Amino acid sequence: MKQELSEALFSLFASIEPLIKNSENPYFKAKYADLGAVLNIIKGKVKDHGFFLYQTVEKIEGESALVTFLVWTKTGEEIRTTYPVVAIKTDPQAYGSAVTYARRYALQNLFGLNAEDDDAEKACGKEKKLLTKKELSELIFSAESIEKLKSLWTQNMASINRLKQDDLNEVESLKNTVRHDLQKT
Question: What is the dihedral sign for C-alpha 3, 68, 38, 169?
Fold first, then answer.
């Protein structure tokens, strides 16, 4: 990659605001940023920095894949990424949902946007059990290291996000206490 393109990409990526979770998945009781929110964050910045972006679905080695192109208009140089399109069912709605999912996550990956994985389990045909406040507290209390605590917290964001504010405050307080105690050891 040429230095000039690298500098343009650095400037573009640095200009992108944090991703805001604007939708709720009632199935998992989790908040997430939908495709519209992802596009709203990046589209104007892409144009302002002399790039254009497009996505298309192609067959690659017999499988559907979403291909995302970020093209620098100054030279025509492009960054191309692929993301698998996996639909459990064969009906058009399931396929459309899989394409939307792929578009959203491909863009989040390309632009380094962090958002909670709201429907990955559903897309894979698995249901994720939401934990109660008591179960979350027991898990947090059982953490044997800072890394394990961080991992448990991240893996259970759907359960944490659906807690009522008082319960959330209690679980966060417990997490902070356990983290503090682990840092001492």
Answer: negative
**pLDDT of res. 30:** 77
Query: 95-118 burial by CB neighbour count: b if 16+ within 10 A, else e?
Result: bebbbebbbbbbbbebbebebbbb
- How do residues 56-96 score in pLDDT, each as one tens digit? 999 988 889 999 999 999 999 999 999 999 888 888 998 99
Q: What is the pLDDT of residue 54?
A: 96
When comparing pLDDT for 68 and 130, which is higher?
68
Distance CA 135, CA 148 (A): 16
Q: Given this model, what pLDDT does residue 118 score? A: 45
Single out the residue in 86, 105, 123 at which a domain terminates.
123
| Kind and range of the H or E run holding 122 | helix 120-123
Strand, helix or coil for residue 32: strand
Q: Are residues 157 and 87 in the same domain?
A: no
CA separation for the pair 57, 65 (Å, rounded): 6
Q: Is residue 128, in this structure, part of any structural domain at all?
A: no
Owner of token pair 């899989």: 98
Distances (CA, A) of 25 to 88, 122, 127, 148: 19, 11, 13, 27
Question: Token digits for 106?
Answer: 């491909």
